[in-house]
Write a structure and sequence with these properties.
The chain is α/β, with parallel strands linked by helices. The chain has a domain of 246 residues: Rossmann fold (3-Layer(aba) Sandwich). Helices cover 41% and strands 16% of the residues. Strands 3-2-1-4-5-6-10 form a seven-stranded parallel beta sheet, sandwiched between helices. Strands 7-9-11 form a three-stranded mixed beta sheet. Helix 6 links the parallel strand 5 and strand 6. It is globular and about 65 Å long. It starts with a strand and ends in a 13-residue tail after the last helix. Bound molecules: nicotinamide-adenine-dinucleotide. The site of nicotinamide-adenine-dinucleotide has 31 residues, from helix 1, helix 4, strand 5 and strand 7.
Length: 355
C-alpha cells in the first residue's frame, strides 16, 4: 500500500487517475490542485469520502506550501498532472502556461528533491516522480506511415506544447543531474467522462444537444490519436508503480481519426440516443460549421505505444467506437455535472472535502 501525491487531481485526467487508484487499488491518494477553471471537485465526488483520499487546494508554484505537503503526507510517489492544458488558451494568453507548466514543474521538482534527499536509502531508491506529458511535444507528422516514438526529437508548435516540452526537459535533467527517480509519459488526445466542455468531443455533444453550431477548425482534416481516459489512467498507474526509473513511455490508443470524422461520429451517436432533436434541426450533422483554422495547427499526431505494451503489458481496453458510446452516454446521464460547468456554479463546489 503506497501513498501517492497527485497534482492536478481535480482535472479531467487527474480525477480519472484518482478514481482508478481509490476504486481499483489499496493505495492512498492526496490531491493537490489549485482549482483553476479546469479543476472541478465534482469530478472527485465518487471517491471524496473514502478514508484513503485527501485533498488540499495548493498552487504548485508555492514552494513553502509544497514543502509542508511533502513533510506531512510523506508520499512514496508523485504523479504530476497539474498543468494549463488547452492549446487555444495558450495562444490567447501564454503566461499562465509558462508559470504553471514550467515554473510550477520546477518548483514541484525542487520540493520533491528536497524531501527525497532526506529519505533512507531503500525509500530513496523506491521513490518515483512521474511527470505526465503529451505527444504534442513532438510537433506533428505529415507522412501517414510515421509514428511518435520515445526517441522522436522534440519540435513543439504551440505555447502549450512548448511549455510541456520545457517541463519534460526539466524532469529529465533532475533525473540525470540529481538522480531523482523520474518517469515521463507522453500521451495522445484523451476523451471520456468529466472532460471540460471547451474540448472538441464534449463541446460537440453539448452544442448539438442545444441545437448550436458545431465549429470545426479549417477543413477538419487534422488527425488525432484518441485514447479513452480510463485506459490512460490505468496506463499511468502501471508506469508509476512498475516503470523503470529514468525511462519515458509513450501512451496511445491506436485510434487515428480526422477531427471531422470524430464530429460525424458524435452526430451519429446522438441520432441514435436522442432522436428527438432541438427545434429546427433535421440532422445533428447539419449543425457542422467550418471556422478559421487555429494558428500553427498541427496536422497529425500518432503514437507508437509498443514500449509500454512490451515492457508493462498495457493495452487499451476500449476501441474508439466503444469509448465514444460510453462517452456520449455519460454526458447524457450526467447533465448535472456539465450544467454546473456551463453556468459556472461548479467553482463554488466544496463537497465537504478535507484539506
Ligand atoms: P485539465 O486542464 O483538465 O486539468 C488540469 C488540472 O490542473 C486542473 O484541475 C487545474 O485546477 C490544475 N492546475 C492548473 N494549474 C495549477 C497549479 N498552478 N497548481 C495546482 N494545480 C493546477 O488537464 P488534463 O486534460 O486533465 O491534463 C492533465 C495532464 O495530462 C496535463 O499535464 C496535460 O498536459 C497532460 N495530457 C493531457 C492530454 C489530454 O488529451 N487532455 C493528453 C496528454 C497529456
Amino acid at each position: 500500500m503506497s501513498r501517492i501525491l497527485v497534482t492536478g487531481g481535480a482535472g479531467f485526467i487527474g480525477s480519472a487517475v484518482v478514481r482508478y487508484i481509490i476504486n481499483e487499488t489499496t493505495d492512498s491518494v492526496m490531491v493537490v490542485d489549485k482549482l483553476t477553471y479546469a479543476g472541478n471537485l465534482a469530478s472527485l465526488a465518487p471517491v471524496a469520502r473514502n478514508p484513503r483520499f485527501a485533498f488540499a487546494q495548493v498552487d504548485i508554484c508555492e514552494r513553502q506550501v509544497l514543502d509542508q505537503v511533502f513533510a506531512t503526507y510523506q508520499p512514496e510517489c508523485v504523479m504530476h498532472l497539474a498543468a494549463e492544458s488547452h492549446v487555444d488558451r495558450s495562444i490567447d494568453g501564454p503566461a499562465a502556461f509558462i508559470e504553471t507548466n514550467i515554473v510550477g514543474t520546477y518548483t514541484l521538482l525542487e520540493a520533491a528533491r528536497s524531501f527525497w534527499s532526506t529519505l533512507p536509502d531503500g525509500k530513496k531508491r523506491d521513490f518515483r516522480f512521474h511527470h505526465i506529458s503529451t505527444d504534442e511535444v513532438y510537433g506533428d507528422l505529415h507522412n501517414s506511415n510515421n509514428f511518435f516514438t520515445e526517441t522522436t526529437p522534440y519540435a513543439p508548435s504551440s505555447p502549450y506544447s512548448a511549455s510541456k516540452a520545457g517541463s519534460d526537459h526539466l524532469v529529465r535533467a533532475w533525473s540525470r543531474t540529481y538522480g531523482l527517480p523520474t518517469l515521463v509519459t507522453n500521451c495522445s488526445n484523451n476523451y471520456g467522462p468529466y472532460h471540460f466542455p471547451e474540448k472538441l468531443i464534449p463541446l460537440m455533444i453539448l452544442n448539438a444537444l442545444a441545437g448550436k453550431a458545431l465549429p470545426v477548425y479549417g477543413d477538419g482534416q487534422q488527425v488525432r490519436d484518441w485514447l479513452y481516459v480510463e485506459d490512460h489512467a490505468r496506463a499511468l498507474y502501471q508506469v508509476a508503480t512498475r516503470g523503470q526509473a529514468g525511462e519515458t513511455y509513450n501512451i496511445g490508443g491506436h485510434n487515428e481519426r480526422k477531427n471531422i470524422e470524430v464530429v460525424h461520429m458524435v452526430c451519429a451517436l446522438l441520432e441514435e440516443f436522442v432522436p428527438q432533436k432541438p427545434a429546427g434541426v433535421a440532422h445533428y450533422q447539419d449543425l457542422i460549421t467550418f471556422v478559421t483554422d487555429r494558428p500553427g495547427h498541427d496536422v497529425r499526431y500518432a503514437i507508437d505505444a509498443a514500449k509500454i505494451e512490451r515492457e508493462l503489458g498495457w493495452i487499451p481496453k476500449e476501441t474508439f467506437e466503444s469509448g465514444m458510446r460510453k462517452t456520449v452516454q455519460w454526458y447524457l446521464s450526467n447533465d448535472k455535472w456539465w450544467k454546473q460547468v456551463l453556468d459556472g456554479s461548479y467553482q463554488g463546489e466544496r463537497l465537504g472535502l478535507k484539506g
